[in-house]
Every structure is written in structure tokens, then in C-alpha cells.
Amino acid sequence: MIIDGKVIAGKILAELKKLPKPATELAAVYVGDDPASASFLRQKAKIADELGVAFHLHKFESSIAEKDLIGAIQKLGEDKTVGGIIIQLPLPEKFNREGVIAAMDPAKDIDALLPGAKVAPLAVEVVKDVLKEVGWLIENKKVGVVGRGVLIGEPVAKWLSGKCKDLIIFHTGTDLARIKECDLVISGAGRAGLIKPEMLKPGAGVIDFGFDMKNGKISGDLEISSVSDSASLAFYTPTPGGTGPILVAEIFKNFYKLS
């Protein structure tokens, strides 16, 4: 089964359209010129337009001083017309990511990156959405999480802890051999083709958050090049068109909760 993220996202957005529009705006902070970030921001702007939500992109050159970037984020936190803030990751390497994120008001933290955030992490909500779509319960499943990033791996692993039969976390330098044991694989490494279908257990499900460029095309961590590649899988999310649209829809769901 190929999971169509646009269908799931459409259901979420349909529910949001029934609610009163937020009176505040959603602010996105974008530093530098990362192409993947630019793509995600275009998706967010498109959905904001569909919902009639005010969306303001605050674009900064990578040459901005860290203290000035922090000051700009703090101002957004103080601005009563701003109901939610997204700091588009990754930031250029020169910045202290934790320090920049800490400048955000936790009450406006759409991605739930801060301890005091008022909403659930987006990746966790996406995993719940996909599992609901396929009718899977994780209590009796061995789950593998590939990557330990702050947006995907870390929050997903934390949420899974104690909820599944067994949890295996794979990170840089880890031998992926044990991925064959997993009933469900959730990957956010961002390395095109890292996971081959033959590496997986027959009947496994894959939720792929990976986003990378390969031969000029957008690719996920899971390498699916033909129908036969996916024949042994119970389900998987393709890239593009899988977790991405759901993630964007969940951003606005969080924004409505905070507004």
C-alpha cells in the first residue's frame, strides 16, 4: 500500500476549514538558501492561502549575526499579532541551533521544539495519522527509528518509548543489519536511498520523513524504484507526496490550537 499523504492532509485541512480562522498570523523564520527549506516554505504558503490564514515569511541572509537573528525571533514572540512561529531548519552551520530555538516563545512554538511547548511534535502527529490510516497498533510491533534529529528521530523515539514491543534507534555509524527485525521503520535521516527494500522484514511498514536530492530529483531515505521494490512491504510513504503534505497540514493544525 502506498500512502497518499495528500489524501490524509486533505482530511485534516477539511476539518480546519470548519473552524473560525485564527485572528493572528503564522510567522516563519528562514535563514540562508537551503533548497529543501524553500520547498517546504512554498508548501506552507500555499496551504495558508487555501485556509485564508495570514502567513508571513521572515527571510534573513546567512550573513546575519546570531544576536540579531535571536533579537528578531524575540520580537516575534513579543508581537501580539503573531500567534505561531516556525524556525525553518536546518539553520546554516555557523549558528548555534539550540540558542536560536531558545529565543522563541514556547507558547508560539509550532514545531514543539521547546520543553514548554503547548502542542505535540509534528512528526509524532504524522506518525499517528499514518498508523490510523493503515489501522496499525504499535503495542505488539518492533519499531526502528532511523536518525536522532530534533524534528523527527528524537521526538518520535521519545513518544514510542514504552508504547511499542521493542524500540531500536539507528544513528550515524550504526549497523543497519537489525532493521530486518523491525515491523515498522520510521526514518528521518535525510539520506537518499539509505534504506533498500531488501534490507527490510517482509510485511514491514515504512514511514519515511527523509528528504534529499539524488540525480536532480527529490528522494527519501527509502529507495523505491519499481513496483517490485515495494511488493514485500505492508505499506510505505513515498517521497515526495508522503509525509510532507501531512506534516504541513499538522503545522496548521498546531497553529489553530495555539491561536
Key features?
three-stranded parallel sheet, 10 strands, 8 helices, 259 residues, Rossmann fold, single chain, five-stranded parallel sheet, globular, alpha/beta, 2 domains
List the helices and strands and how they pair.
Elements (H helix, E strand, L loop, with lengths): L4 H12 L8 E7 L3 H17 L3 E6 L5 H13 L3 E6 L9 H6 L19 H13 L7 E5 L6 H8 L5 E5 L13 E4 L17 E4 L3 E3 L2 E3 L7 H4 L4 E2 L6 H16 L1
Parallel strand pairs: 1-2, 1-3, 4-5, 4-6, 6-7, 7-10
Antiparallel strand pairs: 8-9
Structure overview:
- This protein is α/β, with parallel strands linked by helices and 259 residues long.
- It folds into two domains: 16-115, 3-Layer(aba) Sandwich (Rossmann fold); 122-243, NAD(P)-binding Rossmann-like Domain (Rossmann fold, 3-Layer(aba) Sandwich).
- 34% of the residues lie in helices and 17% in strands.
- The chain has helices at 5-16, 35-51, 66-78, 97-102, 122-134, 153-160, 227-230, 243-258; strands spanning 25-31, 55-60, 82-87, 142-146, 166-170, 184-187, 205-208, 212-214, 217-219, 235-236.
- The strands form three sheets. It has a five-stranded parallel sheet with strand order 5-4-6-7-10, covered by helices on one side. Strands 2-1-3 form a three-stranded parallel sheet, with helices on both faces.
- Helix 1 (5-16) packs parallel to helix 8 and helix 5 (122-134) crosses helix 8 (243-258).
Query: What's the β-strand tally?
Result: 10
Query: What fold name goes in the CATH topology slot of the largest domain?
Result: Rossmann fold
Helices and strands, in N-to-C order?
Answer: HEHEHEHHEHEEEEEHEH
Task: Describe the main β-sheet briefly.
Answer: 5 strands, parallel
Distance between the termini: 36 Å
The side-by-side strand order for the widest beta sheet comes to: 5-4-6-7-10
The general outline is globular
CATH class of the largest domain, named Alpha Beta
